[in-house]
Every structure is written in C-alpha cells, then in structure tokens.
C-alpha cells in the first residue's frame, strides 16, 4: 500500500455539507426569497412560503447537521419589502444559529456600510 501524500495547505477535502448560496439579487421580494431558499436549501415540496414555514423548514435542515448559508449581493435581499420582513428573516436566522447555522452576507465595498446599518436596525 502506498502512503498518502499530504495535500498543500491551500487545498481542503471535506465530507461536510457544502455552503448553501442564496443570490440576493433574485430575492428582492418575499415570494422570490421563499422560492430561492426552498430551492437552495432543498425544502420539501409542501413548504408553505411564509415566515413560519421558513423557520420550521430551516430548523429541520439545521437539525440534520451544521449549515453555512451565504447570501451574495445581500444589499438586494428583500429590498422591495418593508423593513420588518428583513427583520423577520434575521430573527429566524439568529434562532437557527442555535442549531448549527452560520450566516455570511456578502456585498461590495460601496454597499457595505448601508447593509450594516440596515442589518443593525433590523436586529435592534
């Protein structure tokens, strides 16, 4: 049997779950967000497309194992909705961190400060 050569430091092999990536530009409305989240997170076909159903389905996913959720172009996430919907989403995500969820909102440098303000207002 041949000894396995070590990998270079920059290369990782994992048997864990790959990050789930949601495209914020595709999620400006609640309806679009629920569609994208259901697709990316592989929610069951009976997913109810509302905040309670999202919380329940996300809980099922995180109880099955740790999950990293990445939102690209997060500055557009739920942008066409009243602020309370962004707050509802962040509240649900915060609760899911207790069962293994990590979340990263990605944005460009010119959108970082407004996104940070919007997120801070939503969680306060």
Automatic annotation (TrEMBL):
<dbReference type="Pfam" id="PF01337">
    <property type="entry name" value="Barstar"/>
</dbReference>
<feature type="domain" description="Barstar (barnase inhibitor)">
    <location>
        <begin position="20"/>
        <end position="98"/>
    </location>
</feature>
<comment type="similarity">
    <text>Belongs to the barstar family.</text>
</comment>
<dbReference type="InterPro" id="IPR000468">
    <property type="entry name" value="Barstar"/>
</dbReference>
<dbReference type="InterPro" id="IPR035905">
    <property type="entry name" value="Barstar-like_sf"/>
</dbReference>
<protein>
    <recommendedName>
        <fullName>Barstar (barnase inhibitor) domain-containing protein</fullName>
    </recommendedName>
</protein>
